[in-house]
Amino acid sequence: GAGGPERVPSSGAGGPERVENNAGKSPFQGTRGNIQRRVIELHNHSSEAAAAANTQSNSKSGAHGDRVDEVLSQLVCESEGAGDVRETTSHPERGSSAAAASAAAADHAAKRPRLNECGETGGGGGGVVDGTCGAAAKSREWRVIEEASGLTFKTKSASVLSLDSLRHTKIASGIRRDTGKVLPRDVLKRAATLGELLDQIARLPEEPRLTVGEAGDGPQREYATWGMMWQSRCQWLFKRNRPLSEAALRRALEQLIERHAALRAELRDPYPLFGATQQALTAFELWRRHGATSLGSWTCGWLVHGSGLIAAILGRATRWSFRNSWPKARAGGSEIWKGNRLPLRLVGHCATEEEAERKIRASGPKFIPPFQVRFVTFGNEVEEGALVHLAVSHMLSDGYSVIPLLDDLAHLVACAETDGVTLAPLRPIKNMFALLEPRLFSTIEGDADAEALPSGITPEAVGGKIWHECVNDLARMPADVVGAVRKVAQVLTIPDDIAMLAIVGIALAWLDGKETELVAMIVPQRDGAGESDAVGLFSDVRHVAICTGGLSFAGVALRLHHVISNRLWAAPGIATQFDVVLINFEWTDLAERGGFVQRVYSGERADATSLHPIHIAVDQPDGQAWR
Fold first, then answer.
1. Can you list the positions of beta strands (E) in 341-417?
2. In sequence order, what are the residues at sequence separation of 6 or more whose Cβ sits closer than 8 angstroms to the Cβ of residue 209?
3. At what angle do helices 301-325 and 271-286 cross, to 10 degrees?
4. Residue 386 is inside which H or E element, if any?
5. Among 516, 519, 513, which residue's Cα sits nearest to residue 549?
6. Distance, CA of 454 to CA of 448 (rounded, Å)
7. pLDDT at 219
8. Residue 242 backbone dihedrals phi, psi, to 5 degrees
9. Separation of alpha carbons 479 and 469, rounded Å
10. Which of 9, 89, 237, 328 is the right S-S partner for 599, CB 3.0 to 4.6 Å?
11. Quick count: other Cβ atoms within 10 Å of Cβ 210?
């Protein structure tokens, strides 16, 4: 999908950010930081030497790769000797030991792993014993981080470097929801331990309450909007493990629609006009990059000055025209969705959960944007549950929208069932259109220069989209393989998806016989304040170079972690954006909220066409296996 990133200050394309190993920090933090720093430094030195000697390294192994492995092994051994750091898991389904399992089952956090200062799993208790903290000693922010990440941190010195983008988004959303503080992405990126993260959160000011005007949610306010995939949909299936009444669901859906502008969006211009305007912007971008340059390259001095002035005037006038004539959308008044107009379809009641899922996933009526809901109950009087299917236009949502949707739906249903007596109201959020309009204007203005990170929305491809027939293949990764990947990610202190991306990238490099593999990725782009709580199309496609030459597997993974963390990717070309392999991580939010949990379709996927030569999607049908 074409959302668009906001400008993120670059740390430069050189080495990684500095990770210090002060005496006051835990062996876990310092050693893992040294692993990342020294491996990437070795890569940089090796690249310079290779360029000077004009030699070619093998992407799988070699003297440099052996040296990286040697340094990595040495550092891990040092950490084991100094701080008793052992390889562990950050996922509940793998467990740690019988003693730890029985201890975890005794408290409310039994479904989450427990991490001590060395990063190992273990049991817990109340109070503080030998530097560890029990539930009674944990602050509210500590508990929010645990709940959002699905991990249990035993001490403040436990590492948070391996948290992935999904957990970052959930933590930022949870902190804002429970404490009223906006947690910037840079704070999450810089914090090496839980204690550092808690200290940074304590220094943040509380966010002032938004008024209707500040939220940009006036019913008559219209916004310039990037238009695509209006009839396509992002859809999720939520299961509730206890009864859910139609009345409570209706009340919650009315409040959910009123809260999120995307769920009640109205196009103020004909939909075909969006695509035509975006194609015109692509033509303008081609002229801006090439035509204006050739216009200013004449030899006569006065012609050079005059043509440059003409180009500047034409460009400014064209940008003004685009800004003021761009097709618009707005958030419709919530009253049009209430009562019989609520986009809710009742499927009925089924005897079993499996029957209910088949019935709700079956092809129903044609999707009518922007939002539709289907509801089915199952079971008997002894054990009853419900399935709720949400579908939102892809023009107004992306994969990460499941986080605010699931959080808010569970909270609003709980309020409807208890009349809101014991639950605090949700904090207001900013209109999604108000958050995304600046990205569109940045694209029109062409703010991205050669020395800055790409800003704005990926433009329409020259000639439009060409779909190709494809052959599907589904590969399931068993639990032991997934566990091995997670264990390696834990040792390297990188997120699971980075480890998996390195594996896929190395395989592609071998397949193509290249040392550097360029791939396209769908990145979340929810770094701005309040964006983690909004339903909208914030994601965009970015190109990432996966370098394998002269590096071991660990070196490739650590370099990728540096690239992704610092947003050192590139905007796709106007004419070549579909020429490379597309990789998309479709992570599942497996956490339970108010009895609601996300259900993933476990059957075969039948995508018949693709824009890219290869499209690789990695998803989680459950917490123990990937495919």
1. 344-350, 371-379, 384-393
2. 427, 428
3. 160
4. strand 384-393
5. 516
6. 5
7. 62
8. -145, 170
9. 32
10. 237
11. 16
Q: What pairs with residue 102 in β-bridges?
A: none
Q: Which residues pair with 522 in a beta bridge?
A: 541
- Tokens 């966010």, residue located: 207
CA dihedral 216, 217, 219, 221 (to 10 degrees): 20
d(CA 583, CA 580): 10
Query: Which pair of structure tokens corresponds to residue 375?
Result: 């509801």
Rounded to the nearest 10 degrees, how much is the dihedral formed by the CA atoms of 597, 600, 601, 603? -130
> For the residues 360-379, what does the mean pLDDT come to?
88
Among 31-40, 465-474, 478-487, the range of highest mean pLDDT: 478-487
| Residue type at position 309 | L
Cα 229 to Cα 269: distance, rounded to the nearest angstrom = 15
Token readout for 552 is 């071991």
Residue for token pair 């685009």: 322
| Inter-residue contact 625 to 482 (CB < 8 Å) | yes
Tokens encoding 437: 């309009």
pLDDT of residue 130: 40
Residue 294's CB: how many other CB atoms inside 10 A? 11
pLDDT at 64 over 80: no
Contact 580, 519 (CB under 8 A): yes
Handedness of CA 451, 453, 454, 456 (dihedral sign): negative
Give yes or no for residue 106 having a pLDDT over 60: no
DSSP 512-579: HT-SEEEEEEEE----STTGGGS-S---EEEEEEEE-TT--HHHHHHHHHHHHHTT--BPPPTTTTTS
Neighbouring C-beta atoms of residue 588, cutoff 10 Å: 19
Closest CA to 158 of 208, 192, 201: 192
Is residue 592 within 8 A of residue 92, CB to CB? The reply is no
Give the CB-side neighbour count of residue 493, counting CA atoms within 13 A: 31
Q: Summarize pLDDT for 163-188 with one digit per residue, the tens.
A: 877 788 888 888 888 888 888 878 88
Q: Pairing relation of β-strands 596-599 and 516-523?
A: unpaired
Q: Which of 602, 235, 589 is nearest to 389 (CA)?
A: 235
Q: CA 88, CA 486: separation in Å to the nearest integer?
A: 9
Residue 162 has pLDDT above 50, yes or no: yes
Show the tokens assigned to 5: 């990133």
pLDDT band at residue 620 under the 50/70/90 scheme: confident
Quickly tell me which residue has 């933090």 as its tokens: 29
Region 459-478: mean pLDDT is 86
Q: How confident is the model at residue 483 (pLDDT cuts 50, 70, 90)?
A: very high
pLDDT band of residue 57 (cuts 50, 70, 90) is: very low
> What are the tokens at 199?
């200290």
Cβ atoms of residues 620 and 587 within 8 Å: yes
Q: Are strands 615-619 and 581-586 parallel, antiparallel or unpaired?
A: parallel
Question: Helices 140-149 & 194-203, crossing angle to 10 degrees?
Answer: 120
H/E stretch holding 266: strand 265-267
List of residues 6+ apart from 321 with CB closer than 8 A = none
Structural contact between residues 274 and 228, judged by C-beta atoms closer than 8 angstroms: yes
Q: Furthest-apart CA pair in the chain: how many Å? A: 89
Least confident of 131-140, 233-242, 573-582: 131-140
- Structure-token match 């199309």, residue found: 537
Between 79-88, 212-221, 418-427, 502-511, the lowest mean confidence (pLDDT) is in: 79-88
Residue with tokens 């000639």: 463
Backbone angles phi and psi of 390, in degrees to 5:
-110, 135
